[in-house]
């Protein structure tokens, strides 16, 4: 197992190298010029050129790429073209809100979706099952920002239960931290809940047809134990896989959710950087997201062994 | 009455109660402001972004400031003396001026600041070209010797439009003007907290206790800049609906740029005031590329004039509420001293698309592809571009409307090549009203060819008149020159004004004393 983990961690290096090459090249050929954005409307071409030179944007592709890679190897993600702040500082400023949002969303989604899927499978064909499936369709169909606006309108403006926007660091208290995250987590989690609930239901339906479930019933095992101990554990592998894949969904959704709820997270940082063509920030954040995604996949692979003892690495 | 959220919060975390109570007093002394855009850069000389200029107006003071009549008045300067037939300016600083680091403001700081500004700003560059010498005479006086008189120099020092002449310590002003500053020490009424700065989220300003306001009433950018808040927080909210909800929910005090379609909602709220603060607003502009067909042909440019309906452009950009725009608009910002109606009937008379079609047929237009750039992430510009594209098509142009984000738009505009090599023919934008209120900083009206703003018109007469404006002895002379420039605009058509956009601001009714005239200013304002 240990050797496997080491191999997988080492395998992230070529993956990250490909990501780095891809991201850098894509930005290089993409239209837009940060120097023109900085110089603004009134600038002469000479001004734009001077700014481009001062930022090193006039250097050839290979020179810029190798300088960037060299910096990364030394643990330096570069400096934002616009804010003059180190990219690592900007990421550090923004990582807590995004992590908080994703953790709360994950907890919320799993704790709602898995029981929903289990119950829907158990009560297959009943009103409960149809209601769960209808909710799942709704969750898939309604865009995150629509859910966000509706939640903000009712829970914040109409009923004054929760704040509309913003983020309070965890260090300032649990409730101030949580109250800013409830609505965004529900908005972001709606698709995720739908996805996990559907997969849980489908997998559970399959497992519930297995002989060992029939045997458990014949032995007089209670319904709850059958569902949550025997069936759910055996259905866990595809569910965990979907949860892992869904992390990418969460990262994408966080961009919209953070904008709608004015949460200063990595999603907004990415969008702002893209709109301004702040190359070092875009590159840094994409590398980080890729790294996180690779690690999540590794964690999911390792979790398989927990749920299915037949799986060995 | 206890608010439900407060009750819930208290119930959920009683331990937090002392912090909440303590925060209420601090909150009353904090102004929560939602700026028009994300503040990313902090150097008003390096960046021309309006939001950076607004930041600059808080942190840096200026030698002169414009009053609400848009005329310059001494600000940091106690006054000046003009000698040697207008070619020698001696400026004396007020006593007691200090930078945020506690050091006194000296004449040598002003000299260094002016030198840096003069490399970047359009009026600064003129000063740079005219300067024989600039030097500090002592700690409070500096002298400028010019090659020829420039009566409007105080205006140049006091204009708020990018780039403002921000006064900073000489050690900081020594930074290359094409390199961003890393130190935000100024002498303005607010001190910027770099340590709390989170770009894209939060910018914090604290009242500078060492600031010496003039002992007179505030008058736009001039007069006594009295600060009544301990702290001003800029909270960036990229989504207009969120900003609107935050204002309604008392999570923000002041929103700088509410969208026109959200204004009716905000007006219905008794706790919110919707008001026109920036009376100069912005001037919509249709800009042509003079380097390539078809708009290298003056007859083609002129052909459009009878068909341009400013009302239609403004309705698309701002809606039908007439308080949100002003038409007709000439070449200079309506409502400012140089606005005039010389030849304005070309835009204010009855609109006639058929006449425009006829004129286009007679102009020699050969159905060349007209590439119109449209920035889709800026709603006002997108609306203007869509109306313009439709208008051009109705007149008979072969229009290729190309949608892109602002970052791409501003890069494409610098491409001087033909349209099949990534070039462009025409685009719409808006200019800060204060920028285009006088010939000196009015870029669309310039005609100096390759050096000019995107479009690169060569119109020597406009350059002559601009030069004459710099030397105009009084306002009457300036007005005569502006009228003549406007007539030349209708003849040569370097751009077509599309109307004056008057964006409102929205703030909680508890906020009073908001200073009118231009951007959001944070002196004079207080919580009732």
UniProtKB/TrEMBL annotation, chain A:
Coiled-coil residues: none
Protein source organism: Falsiroseomonas bella
Transmembrane segment boundaries: 9-30, 99-122, 134-157, 177-197, 235-261, 281-307
Intracellular or extracellular location(s): Cell membrane
This protein's UniProt keywords: Cell membrane, Membrane, Transmembrane, Transmembrane helix, Transport
Cellular component terms per the entry's GO annotation: plasma membrane
Occurrences of domain ABC transmembrane type-1 (ranges): 95-304
Classification lineage: Bacteria, Pseudomonadati, Pseudomonadota, Alphaproteobacteria, Acetobacterales
Record bears the keyword Repressor: no
Pfam families given in the database record: BPD_transp_1, BPD_transp_1_N
Single Gene Ontology MF annotation: dipeptide transmembrane transporter activity
Name of the protein: Peptide ABC transporter
UniProtKB/TrEMBL annotation, chain B:
CDD domains to which the protein is assigned, alphabetical: PBP2_NikA_DppA_OppA_like_16
The keyword Isomerase appears for this protein: no
UniProt cross-references to Pfam families, sorted A to Z: SBP_bac_5
Record's keyword terms, sorted: Signal
Main location: periplasm
Domain of life: Bacteria
Solute-binding protein family domain mapped to chain residues: 72-429
GO biological process, one term: peptide transport
Gene Ontology cellular component list: ATP-binding cassette (ABC) transporter complex; outer membrane-bounded periplasmic space
Family annotation (PROSITE patterns): TAT
One annotated GO molecular function: peptide transmembrane transporter activity
SUPFAM superfamilies, per the entry: Periplasmic binding protein-like II
InterPro entries listed in its UniProt record: Peptide/Ni-bd, SBP_5, SBP_5_dom, TAT_signal
Subcellular location per the Swiss-Prot or TrEMBL entry: Periplasm
PANTHER family: D,D-DIPEPTIDE-BINDING PERIPLASMIC PROTEIN DDPA-RELATED (PTHR30290:SF38), PERIPLASMIC BINDING COMPONENT OF ABC TRANSPORTER (PTHR30290)
Family assignment from sequence similarity: Belongs to the bacterial solute-binding protein 5 family.
Name of protein: ABC transporter substrate-binding protein
Organism, scientific name: Falsiroseomonas bella
